[in-house]
C-alpha cells in the first residue's frame, strides 16, 4: 500500500456528495486503475463498463459510485482470472454482495475511506440491487454452462432490466 506522502502527483479536493470535501489524486488513481486493467488481461475496463451500464439500466438507477467500483475491483483483484466476461461479471456482483457495498479504504491513502453510496437509504437500495443481480447472474451463467442460451439471455435481461447488451 502506498502512503500519501509518496504520491508525487497533484492532490485535489472535490465535493464528496455529502457536503464535505474528499482528497483525490486523479493521476495517481488512474495509474493504479490502469495497472489493474493490465493485470486482468485487459478485461478490467470492460467489466467495469458492464457494471456501470447495469447501474444505469436499473429503475431506479443503482447509486453506487464509479470511483468505489474501480477501487473495489482494483484492490480485490477479482477480475484477474481467466474467465468469460459473464463469469467475471458474476464474480463482480458476488464480491459486491459479500462486501455488502461497504466503504473501501483508498489503497493509495489519498482519499481515506471511499463509500459506495452517500446515504443509508442509497446503500440499502444498492445492496438490494446487487443481491438481485448476483442471484440472476448466477442463473444466467449456469444456463450458459448447460447450453441453454435462451434461458441465459432471459436471466441476463433480468439483471439488466430488459436491456441486456447482446
Describe the structure.
This protein has 166 residues and is mostly helical. The chain is built from six helices and four strands; from the N terminus they run E-E-H-H-H-H-E-E-H-H. It has helices at 26-39, 44-57, 66-76, 85-99, 120-145, 149-159, and strands at 12-15, 21-24, 104-105, 113-114. The strands form two sheets. Strands 1-2 form a two-stranded antiparallel ribbon. A two-stranded antiparallel ribbon has the order 3-4. Helix 2 (44-57) packs antiparallel against helix 3 (66-76) and helix 5 runs antiparallel to helix 6. The protein is globular and about 50 Å long.
Average pLDDT confidence is 90
Number of strands: 4
The spatial strand order of the largest sheet comes to 1-2
What is the makeup of the main sheet? 2 strands, antiparallel
What is the beta-strand fraction? Answer: 5-15%
Low-confidence stretches: 1-5
CA radius of gyration: 17 Å
**Helix count from the secondary structure assignment:** 6
What percent of residues adopt helix (DSSP H or I)?
40-55%
Q: How many angstroms does the end-to-end distance come to?
A: 38 Å
Structural class based on helices, strands and sheet pairing = mainly alpha
| C-alpha geometry | globular
Order of helices and strands: EEHHHHEEHH
